[in-house]
Every structure is written in structure tokens, then in C-alpha cells.
Amino acid sequence: MSYRRYAWVDVDTGAIAANVAAIKTLIPAKTLMMAVVKADGYGHGAVQTATAALQAGADRLGVATVDEAIELRDAGFAVPVQLLSEPPVDSVDVLVERDIIPAVTTREFAHALSVAASSAGVTALLHIKIDSGMSRIGVRPEEAPEFALWLRNLPAVDTEGVFTHFATADVLGDWDFARQLARFNKAIAELHTEGLRPRIVHAANSATTVLHPEAHFDMVRPGIILYGLHPSNATHGVIDLSPAMSVKARVSYLKTVALGEGVSYGLTWRAAAPTVVATIPLGYADGVHRVLSGNMDVLISGKRCPQIGRVCMDQLMVEVPGGVNVSVGDEVVIVGRQDHEVIPLDELAEKAGTINYELACGFSRRMTRFYR
Length: 372
Hints:
The chain is an alpha/beta fold and 372 residues long. It folds into two domains: 13-235, TIM Barrel (Alpha-Beta Barrel), CATH 3.20.20; 245-343, Lyase, Ornithine Decarboxylase, Chain A, domain 1. It has eleven helices and 21 strands. It has helices spanning 13-24, 38-42, 46-55, 66-74, 92-98, 107-120, 144-152, 175-193, 206-211, 345-352, 356-362, and strands at 7-11, 32-36, 60-63, 81-83, 100-101, 103-104, 124-129, 157-163, 200-204, 219-220, 245-250, 253-257, 262-263, 269-270, 275-280, 297-300, 303-308, 316-320, 331-338, 341-343, 368-371. The longest helix is centred in the middle third of the chain and has 19 residues, at 175-193. The chain is elongated and about 80 Å long.
């Protein structure tokens, strides 16, 4: 292993494969699985995550942007790659050229896609996005049949699928989830009445995949659970997941701080006694949120060491407890396991007042990813 900097991210692709296997136990054998690898595989690396997920049984890949889709095509993936939202109209030529399946919500975009596909002499697949109640993007449920009929008359496009996205699937017994599902089911039934039967109906994000088998339809779209992270407390105990990401560093400097001396910007922490302080070479530019200042631990020599003072852009400092022997170069765990201790990403997210999704996506690319 070669280091250009003593701060890095370890990704266990075996854990991703194990999570895919766990997901597949929850869905019927005929139900497709889209592995959602947007945002660089939620910070884990899109190409490596996609490889592990497909080898473990996923059927296709989901991303958010055209550039994310192109990255997968450039890496050699030939499976269907889908955009989960409608991209800019001027992207239609590259979508057709690279065989990327867009979500469609407007006639302007659909018409442009039809023209591009006709000019290339191919048929472009698309999926209609229905807004069943999240109020983000999508065709209104009551407008979906007429929109789908209009699409059927466009040349060189094929409505392969119809989908929606739930806002509250992670809350058991939630009324809004039930209302969204009812709206979506009604829209699909009305499509069938018009003689329209899209081959792939899908709605299940991670929480829906785990908690709501009645909404699996023809395909599920797991995202956060691929990476071994739970979308909410409700999914704990329903599926056994293996976290794939560990965030690590090495001690870059040690010093003893005298009684009353301060540490870091603003000197917000002062030593109550002579204290050994270790400097760790990563900070908020790497994804360790500044709001965590003085409110997080790291693991050194298998022991929890409290972070002290303000987290800097590129460095943070920790107090070395008495009796813990630390040397420059020792491994430090910010997220993950060391000996018998563990710091889960959920712990940092709770202390930062956010969700595990944001932290996983936020560990910056200036930290090398190593794949196990």
C-alpha cells in the first residue's frame, strides 16, 4: 500500500456483495435489482461498487447525472444504466449515443429524445417519473395516462418503465406513505385501462425494499443499504448489513500541552493538566464536519480518544488518555473498527445533527480509496 498522505478510506467490496445477497433474500427471484451508485457510490467509488453489486446479482445501475452514467460506460459496464431524474434537454444526443436510460417528466425533453433517437436510427428507452406526493419532480398521477399515451405516439422512443419515489418509507405505519402508494397504484391501474403496460414498474428505495414488500413491484432500487448503512432505525433487525466504509489516518505529530495551554483555532479547549495531544492529518475539507469539534472520538491503539479543539480544514487534534501509548505513524480510525472498539458512521451523523448518507458522500476524493 502506497500513501501520499496519511488519511484514507478503506472500502470492503465483500461487504457490498454480502449486502446485495441480504437484499435478495427480501425480494422475489423475478424482481430486478437496480444498484444505486450515484454520488460516486455514496462516497465508496461508483465503479468499484457497481462491480461488486453486479457480481453479487444486481441487474442494472442507477445514477443521478449524465456524467455519472458516462463514467460507468467508460469503465466498460454494458448493463442498463438509468438516470433517476430528467437531465438537461441538450444531453439527448449523448444519452442516445451511450445508451443511457433517462427519467422523463416533460414533453420538451421527450420530444428532443425522440428526435435524437430517430436521427441515430435507434429506439431510446425511457422511464416516466410520477410524483405521487414527494413534490420534487415528476408527472402528476392523474396526468400520467395521458402523458404515456402521448409518448406512445412519439417515434423512436419506448416507455420501458414507470416509477415513483417515497418520502416517508422509513417510517412504519406512516399515513403519507400509504397515500403515495395508493396514488401510484391508481396511476398504474389507469395506465393498464388505457392498454399501456410498462415492463418495469418500480418504487422501492432502500427503506421500501426492507420494510414494504407490497411496493416492490418489478424492481427495487437499493441505495444506502448496499453500503451497509441503515436508512432509519426501523430497518434495524429486519436486515443484517455489513458497513463497507472505514475512514482512517495516521498520527502525524505528538506534543505535550502544559496546564492552561489551548488547542486549535479560538483556543476553545484548554488543558486541565499536562496532556499528550496527537495531531491527525484530516479535517473538514475531508468530510469531518467542523460541527463535530469537541464532540467526537477516534480510535488509537483500540481506545477511544476524544477530539479536542476546533476541527481545522486539514487537521484535527485528539487527547491521548493516560496509559495509552501512541507513536507518530500509528493508525487512527475515524469511522470503523479497531480491535474490539467501533465507531459507526451513524454515531458521527447523530453528533453532527445529520444523516449517514451525507457523511458517507462527504468524505472527499483527496483521500485515496483502498479496496479490499
